[in-house]
Specification:
The chain has about 425 residues and is of the alpha+beta class. The protein has 2 domains: about 200 residues, Enolpyruvate transferase domain (UDP-n-acetylglucosamine1-carboxyvinyl-transferase, Chain, Alpha-beta prism), CATH 3.65.10.10; about 200 residues, Alpha-beta prism (UDP-n-acetylglucosamine1-carboxyvinyl-transferase, Chain), CATH 3.65.10. The protein contains 14 helices and 23 strands. The strands form 6 sheets. A 4-stranded mixed sheet has the order 21-22-1-23, with helices on one face. A 4-stranded mixed sheet has the order 2-14-16-15. A 4-stranded mixed sheet has the order 4-5-3-13, covered by helices on one side. α8 packs parallel to α10 and α11 runs parallel beside α12. The protein is elongated and about 60 Å long. It starts with a strand and ends with a strand. The structure holds uridine-diphosphate-N-acetylglucosamine. The site of uridine-diphosphate-N-acetylglucosamine has 22 residues, from α1, α5 and α6.
Length: about 425
């Protein structure tokens, strides 16, 4: 459990280094289960979700060794992760189902139920594995897939990130050719495909809506550095937008953040892209409309931080959350701090420009927690942000410390 005490911080200045991406590292760790020889991942972030995934891999029989920020994964003799608590803690543990089925002819994983932001079913994962020849079932919280996998033609009802990753990993060792249509196009999918290709997989079309995978008999290990975290960079860019000053986000990839950068420019921010990363100046002056979509649309993971920005900017902003059904819990806390936000189903209307006041608020999920930490920077008085479940540390490496490095007045208790 953590509590953050946040005081007004009107000016942020300086540089922050962007870490490697949580959402790229987790699937790549699952992908390491496909490899006969060790995988070394460089520069992995210190996040509790990464620790949990390491536990999941260990429960699957892999050896996970960390030296500094490097992680070595040896997936020799694999087994089913029976009774592992970490599996039930982490939604991304569904990503070991495809690799286990591909390596062992069977995968069995007990998953958490619905979570705060939505139900998060896994029907698309399971239907895809069935098309590849697996016998699939989901009884209670246990999902299983069994059988020798062969290539097939898969259409995803929705371009689910996790389902695309799971099916891609299953298909690289399946006999023959697999086509995945309406695949997710997120940069993390491209990164996973690049990693698997470096291990000897044959994949075409990563980053487009159609993936074509020619199965190979086995994969070898490799050394790999995952992409920078576009959500961490985007969150810090939103922090810049609610304060004055000038910050450089070293290593941030603007090509992964186009939708956010368009919106920040529309608010009146100055955004410059150069070889070092992203430079942000000024602050958000005008409200903007935001519709979350699959990549390259506006990322749902930045909807909450962007709502904090729109509380600062003057005028009306309309949000439409199309990816998750219950992702406005931060709106309740922001309203308690004095924001004018009305939500109705998947829509939220923000009348920006109100003065926020510090209050005791709670991080109900990872990105909501980050949004409230940012809100504390522009609120008058003290904001006490309680993060009982440690949501923020799951996905941001010392976000408070990074903001403090830029001049924010935050302390963690
Ligand atoms: C990933 C990211 C998460 C991000 C999300 C959307 C990781 C570890 N997490 O989550 O941060 O918010 O993408 O960009 O990378 N769905 C189904 N059936 C399925 C699978 C998904 O109905 O079988 C629905 C979900 O309930 C949700 C939507 O599809 O409404 C998107 O989910 P998905 O893209 O799968 O997200 P995740 O991979 O879980």
């Amino acid at each position: 459990m953590s509590t953050y005490l946040i005081h007004p911080s009107p000016v942020l200045h300086g540089e922050a280094q962007i870490n490697t991406s949580k959402n790229a590292v987790l699937p790549i760790m699952a992908g390491a289960l496909l490899c006969q020889s060790p995988v070394v991942l460089h520069d992995t972030p210190a996040l509790t979700d990464v620790d949990s995934m390491a536990e999941v891999l260990t429960a699957c029989g892999a050896r996970v060794e960390r030296r500094g920020r490097d992680m070595r994964i040896t997936a020799g003799d694999l087994r089913q992760p029976e009774d592992a608590q970490a599996v039930q803690r982490l939604r991304a543990s569904i990503l070991v189902l495809g690799p286990l089925c591909a390596r062992l002819g069977e995968g069995r994983v007990a998953l958490p139920g619905g979570c705060a932001i939505g139900q998060r079913p896994i029907d698309i994962h399971l239907r895809g594995l069935k098309t590849l020849g697996a016998e699939v079932s989901q009884e209670g919280s246990v999902a299983s897939a069994k059988g020798s996998l062969a290539g097939g033609s898969i259409y995803l009802d929705f371009p689910s990130v996790g389902a695309t990753e799971n099916l891609l990993m299953a298909a690289v060792l399946a006999r023959g050719v697999t086509r995945i249509e309406n695949a997710a196009k997120e940069p993390e999918i491209v990164d996973l495909a690049d990693f698997l290709t470096a291990c000897g997989a044959r994949i075409l079309g990563a980053g487009t809506g159609t993936l074509v995978i020619d199965g190979v008999r086995q994969l070898r290990g490799t050394e790999y550095t995952p992409i920078p975290d576009r959500i961490e960079a985007g969150t810090l860019a939103c922090a810049a937008a609610i304060t004055e000053g000038s910050i450089l986000l070293r290593g941030a990839r603007s090509d992964h953040l186009r939708a956010l950068l368009f919106k920040l420019r529309e608010t009146g921010m100055l955004v410059q892209e150069d070889s070092r990363g992203l430079c942000l100046r000024g602050r958000a002056k005008r409200g903007v409309d935001v519709r979350t979509l699959s990549y390259p649309g506006f990322p749902t993971d930045l909807q909450a931080p962007m709502m904090t920005v729109c509380c600062k900017a003057k005028g009306q902003s309309v949000f439409l959350e199309t990816i998750f059904e219950n992702r406005y819990m931060h709106a309740v806390a922001l309203s308690r701090m004095g924001a004018d936000i009305r939500t109705e189903g998947r829509m939220a209307v923000v009348q920006g420009g109100q003065t926020l006041h510090g209050a005791a608020v709670e991080a109900t999920d990872l990105r909501a927690g980050a949004a409230l930490m940012l809100a504390g920077l522009m609120a008058q008085g003290e904001t006490r942000l309680l993060d009982e479940a440690g949501h923020i540390d799951r996905g941001y490496e010392h976000l408070d410390e990074k903001l403090r490095g830029l001049g924010a007045d935050i302390c963690k208790q």
